[in-house]
Write a structure and sequence with these properties.
With about 140 residues, this protein is of the alpha+beta class. α5 crosses α6. The longest helix is centred in the C-terminal third of the chain and has 16 residues. The model has no long low-confidence stretch (mean pLDDT about 90).
Length: about 140
């Protein structure tokens, strides 16, 4: 089984301060080809996460201006994180159970990266599919 440290190895996650506008964050997400921004405080501690889904549901659909709305107004505060020694299937289970797609990987307060449903493929995804199918038959 792969550990999360294997998946985020050499990753440079997109981090931005909470005062950043949604527009600027979305531009950086587009340019980097990522689906989330890890929101950090002055000491680079993780304080929130902002995703493409947040841009749609919390900004655009609610009629807010991306140019003036700040990340701290629409981010998910204190996101669930996982340690790098955890295995990938645990992250997939957590995302499935929690209904989200991004999990920051943090160790000792240091952000190492982000795992997503899309970044965990192969054996782990196949195993989760089998587990979900088994649970459906048990209902």
């Amino acid at each position: 089984m792969r550990h999360l440290s294997d998946i985020v190895l050499n990753q440079r996650p997109l981090t931005m301060p909470a005062e950043t506008s949604v527009k600027e964050a979305c531009e950086h997400m587009r340019d980097r080809g990522v689906g989330s921004v890890l929101v950090v405080d002055r000491n680079d501690n993780l304080v929130g996460i902002f995703t493409g889904r947040d841009a749609v549901c919390r900004v655009l659909a609610d009629g807010h201006s991306p140019a003036v709305t700040k990340l701290h107004d629409v981010m998910t505060r204190n996101p669930v994180t996982m340690a790098p020694q955890k295995v990938a299937i645990d992250a997939l289970r957590m995302m499935w159970d929690g209904g989200f797609r991004h999990v920051p990987v943090v160790e000792g307060g240091k952000i190492l990266g982000v795992v997503t449903r899309g970044s965990i493929k192969g054996y782990e995804q196949h195993r989760l599919d089998e587990e979900r199918e088994l649970w459906e038959h048990m209902r």
